User: Fold this.
Amino acid sequence: MEHPELIRHARRLLELIEQHYGAGTLGATLEFLRTYSGQKSGFYQVLNRIVQRVNLPQAREHANHVLMGFIDYIEGGLETGDSPGQPIPLTAIQAILDRAQRLVRSPQVPAWAVVILAGGALGAFFEIWVRSANLKLGRRTPSIEYCAKLLVEADRLPAQDALELKKWDDLQQQALMEKDTVIEPDQARKMLQWIQLFIKKYEGQPLAPTAGQAG
Assistant:
C-alpha cells in the first residue's frame, strides 16, 4: 500500500473510532498496524499491550493517539536507508518522538506506553543506521541490542554508549514483557531525553568510525 493510501486508511480508522467505536473497530486498528507497521513496531506493540491492560472504553483514546502517531510517522517520509552513505532520514523518527513527548505530559497515558513508543523510534533509528552502514543483519529480526552490537564491532558506536543504551532497551523490554510492571513518568521522560540527545549525537555521521578508529 502506497503512503497516501496508508494515510487515508489510517484517517478512516480515526473517523470510525470517533463515530462507531467498538471491539470491531479496535480489532481493525490492531490488524492495520500489525500489517503495515509490523508486529515488532512500537505502534502495534503499544496498542496491543493497552488492549491487554485496559477495558474497551479506556482503550479508545489510546487507539486514537497511536494512529495519529503512525500518521505522523508516514507523513514524515521515513526512507529505507538502503543506500550506503546516505544520511539517516530522521523526520519520521522525530515525529514519533514528538508524539511521545506530548503523550508523556498526559496523565491519561501510562508511562509504559510512552516507553514502548520511544523504544520503537530508537529501534527504527538503529535499523536504518545498520542498513546504511551496509552491515549484514541476516534473517533475524533486528533488535536494538543486536544492532548496537554490530555497530560496536564495526567501530561505529563506542562501547560505553552501547552500555548506556542497554539500560533504556531493558526498560522497553520490561514495558513490553511484564504485564504488571510499574514505570514512572519520570523514567519515560528521562528515556525520551536520552534518545533525543543520542540521535542528535549520531544523526550526522551514521557511517563514521568512532573516535580514534578513523583510518
In short: The mean pLDDT is 78. DSSP finds nine helices and no strands in the chain. Residues 93 and 124 are 7 Å apart (CA to CA). The longest helix spans residues 111-132.
